Amino acid sequence: MPNSIQQLGPSHSRSSILLLLLALFAFSPASPAQQRREREPNSVYAQRRAALAAQVDSPILLLGFTGREESSQSYLFAQEDNFYYLTGHNEEGAALLILPSVEKQSLVTNVTDTWTGPREILFLPARNLKKEAWNGPRLAPDDPAIREKTGFASVLSADTQLRPTVEQLAHLYHDFFTILPYEQENGGYPHEKEFAAWLGELAPKVALQDIRAKISRLREIKSPGEIAFLQRAIDLSVDAHLEAMRRMRPGLFEYQIAAAMTAVHLAGGAESEGYAPIVGAGFNSTVLHYDKLDRRIAPGDIVVLDVAAQFSGYSADITRTLPASGKFSPRQREIYEIVLAAQNAAISSLKPGMTFCREGKNSAYKIAFNYINSHGKDLHGKSLGPYFIHGLGHNIGLDVHDPGDYCRPLEPGMVVTVEPGIYIPEENLGVRIEDDVLITPTGYQLLSERLPRDPAAIERLMAESLTAAAQPPKP
Ligand SMILES: [Mn+2]
Prior knowledge:
The strands form 6 sheets. The protein has a 4-stranded mixed β-sheet. Mean pLDDT is 90; it is low at 1-29. 34% of the residues lie in helices and 14% in strands. The chain contains 13 helices and 17 strands. The protein starts with 13 loop residues before the first helix and ends in a 5-residue tail after the last helix. It is globular. A hairpin with a 2-residue loop joins strand 10 and strand 11 (314-315). By secondary structure, it is α+β, with helices and mostly antiparallel strands. The chain has 2 domains: 25-219, Creatine Amidinohydrolase, Chain A, domain 1 (3-Layer(aba) Sandwich); 224-470, Alpha-Beta Complex (Creatine Amidinohydrolase). The structure holds manganese (II) ion. Manganese (II) ion is lined by residues 317, 394, 417, 419, 434. The site of manganese (II) ion has 5 residues, from loops.
């Protein structure tokens, strides 16, 4: 569509071009929304909001993503994770207000005047038929069944009622809670900055407090519904890794293995990849977040596949390391077995109270690190500890790197990855094995157990498919 501007001859005035640009802006469709296959019951999202409301003494105001976060043509709208966690709402331009469950009168600026409105409000954009002609129907505040659909008793217009509500609250409270901008990876930074600035302008006397840590704390413990979604994402990812084991051949490009895995995810019902697939052969196996995927896999290569699906918003995170030709070399097998034993030692230690901290007596990281550091040597006779260059794992959930503090003791209901690795660039040799684990009251449950890790089992599976491929087709 922007190309049509070039068809305007020089005779057109600047103002007509400006008008055209305005028209394009006004009528250009927002990005289509990513389909989420399933959703938890509304009561689950309501419980999360109630848990948050019980922890604050001032209103919480959150803005969902607008749908203008990216200009890429392949961008599919996907709600901001914290907003989705509290609402299950996956459409553009929504806002959320949660009032504290207990009013503390001392914190209200004018004690004779208190908030008598609803205790929580979902703000949605008004129906826009022009946009719907492009993108399909969206929920709107005046839908007859909007309360049942969203689980909110009060759904108001984001266009006309959000601003006056915020202004009214600004007269009553010293503080608002929102998600304050920070500049870490995946922080949603420009969106947060824009919203904080808007709030600051609208309510200049109100101090903005950060609610992020309180939501993160809730997100660390998964609900049964979240665990079920994660299990579906994990199962699809296991299927994809099994397919990769069957297909792996020297001569294929890394991207062809990734494509075969992605196809399994999508055909099985995944909405998308959990993250950009990593398929790294040879030297690329030592690049942690390798993203080029353009090497032709050579005989004798080792191949790291860190690929997983997203289902209903939740991402798995699984890595396997395969011998390109179907059989590990003695050196590859030696390093593989060290990583596997380190992973087994770390996994079997998992239970409430253990941590992923680098230090401390309950550190599962140290169990893995110490194993790696005391087994095997590099080409110079040195210990392998320095080749384990990342942490032991992280929480997974709505984000493949879900919020969490590595040094916080594990609790039942957390779902974490366990992913030790050894990366020796000098030998073109990287090995990572990554599995997804649910922490239970007494220990752990390995959610990705169906996918072989044992090197002999992997070689057997690869050999079976090579034999099958060598058979003449059945008549
Ligand atoms: Mn990971």
